[in-house]
């Protein structure tokens, strides 16, 4: 009786461990493929990200210049009145 129970437990563990290991292997392979794909996408869009950063920097500089001109005009108007 005890031997039969041990055999059934071992067989149950084997039948549950083997598919689990297979699933983990496939999951790690897919993860590696996705990481590689993600790296390629980031490399392709790096120049686009740089252009956006340049545009943001440009508009901030333009806005700063515009604010300085408006403050100068306001100061001149206040001095006249």
Structural class from helices and strands? mainly alpha
Distance between the termini: 108 Å
Overall average residue pLDDT:
88
Q: What's the shape?
A: rod-shaped
Order of helices and strands: H
Total number of helical segments?
1
Brief summary:
With 81 residues, the chain is mostly helical. Helices cover 98% and strands 0% of the residues.
Structure explained in plain terms:
The protein is mainly alpha-helical and 81 residues long. Helix content is 98%, strand content 0%. The chain has one helix and no strands.
Features:
81 residues, mainly alpha, 1 helix
Secondary structure layout plus pairing:
Elements: H1 2-80
């Amino acid at each position: 009786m005890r031997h039969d129970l041990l055999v059934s437990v071992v067989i149950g563990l084997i039948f549950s461990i083997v598919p689990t290991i297979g699933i983990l292997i496939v999951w790690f392979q897919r993860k590696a493929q996705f990481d590689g794909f993600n790296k390629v996408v980031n490399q392709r869009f790096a120049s686009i990200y740089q252009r956006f950063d340049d545009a943001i920097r440009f508009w901030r500089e333009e806005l700063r210049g515009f604010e300085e001109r408006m403050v100068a005009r306001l100061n001149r108007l206040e001095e006249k009145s």
